[in-house]
Amino acid sequence: MLITGPAKKVAVYVMEGQTYHGTSCYTAILEYLFFRGISDATVTRGVAGFGTDHKMHTSRLVDLADQMPIKIEFLESPDRVDEVLPKLAEMACHGIIEVHDTTVIRPPEPGKSPKPEVPATRLESKAKMMRILIGESDKWNGKPMHEAIVQALRANDIAGVTVYRGILGYGANRRMHKDSTLNLSHDAPILLTVVDNEAKLRAFFPVLDQMVKQGLVVVSDVDVIKYSHAQLLPETQEVQK
């Protein structure tokens, strides 16, 4: 989030029909800014204008409907703008990028004092990732195998698990499994991904030995990075000793 102080105002001008890697250029730029964490951005569409060719473009002309100017505008700190400008220049291609120095002023809400910004806490650690590959049709005690494994992981206090359903693949029998509207496979590949410390995962192996009759388990080292926001204590609350 932008705070009060020096900033840069950036405007990127492209044509509505301009594309970047098969998608509309302005959409690609907006998505890039969003996933790079830019504070906010606005897209506006021109209704009339002309360019260096000195030809008039207007939205009333059907043949030139995709030749209207599009402006993507955002405010950010100078450092962040310097980070994204090279990629924006590549994406805008034949367009124009305009950068201005500006100042951001965020007045406090009436009756409220501005709250200090709490930075995210970044925690790093070593862990193990366990991947369990089974078939969708696999059962355990009458229920789908992947549901039974998830319940078993939860009962054994494993940190968390995510289940993915494959759309295409083959296993040890080299038989192709494909998910399509014409051929709905009931034996699509299922992948369960689990991350926890090595001791807890190895303690779960005997449970897997009882449940999984045909499948694959892969264990690998991973680096875990966790982000969390610390909670500020209210000003009136005293910290007990």
- Unreliable spans are 235-241
Radius of gyration: 27 Å
What portion of residues belong to β-strands? 35-45%
The sequence of SSEs as H and E is EEEHEEEEHEEEEHEEEEHE
- Number of DSSP E strands: 16
Number of domains: 2
Question: Tell me about the biggest sheet?
Answer: 4 strands, antiparallel
Continuous helix count: 4
The CATH first-level class of the largest domain comes to Alpha Beta
* Cα separation of the termini: 35 Å
Can you give the mean pLDDT? 81
Largest sheet strand order: 4-7-1-8
Global geometry: elongated
Share of helix among residues? 10-25%
What name is given to the CATH topology of the largest domain?
Answer: Alpha-Beta Plaits
- Assigned CATH architecture of the largest domain: 2-Layer Sandwich
Please state the structural category: alpha+beta
Explain this structure to me?
- By secondary structure, the protein is of the alpha+beta class.
- The protein has two domains: 5-104, Alpha-Beta Plaits (2-Layer Sandwich); 122-228, Alpha-Beta Plaits, CATH 3.30.70.
- Helix content is 21%, strand content 40%.
- The chain has four helices and 16 strands.
- The chain has helices at residues 25-35, 78-92, 145-155, 198-211; strands spanning 5-15, 19-20, 23-24, 41-45, 48-50, 56-58, 69-76, 96-104, 120-135, 139-140, 143-144, 161-165, 168-170, 176-178, 189-196, 216-229.
- The longest helix has 15 residues, at 78-92.
- It is elongated.
Fill in the keyword field for this structure.
disordered C terminus; Alpha-Beta Plaits; 2 domains; 40% strand; 21% helix; 16 strands
Write the layout of secondary structure elements.
Elements: E1 5-15, E2 19-20, E3 23-24, H1 25-35, E4 41-45, E5 48-50, E6 56-58, E7 69-76, H2 78-92, E8 96-104, E9 120-135, E10 139-140, E11 143-144, H3 145-155, E12 161-165, E13 168-170, E14 176-178, E15 189-196, H4 198-211, E16 216-229
Antiparallel strand pairs: 1-7, 1-8, 2-3, 4-7, 5-6, 9-15, 9-16, 10-11, 12-15, 13-14
Helix pairs in contact: 1-2, 3-4
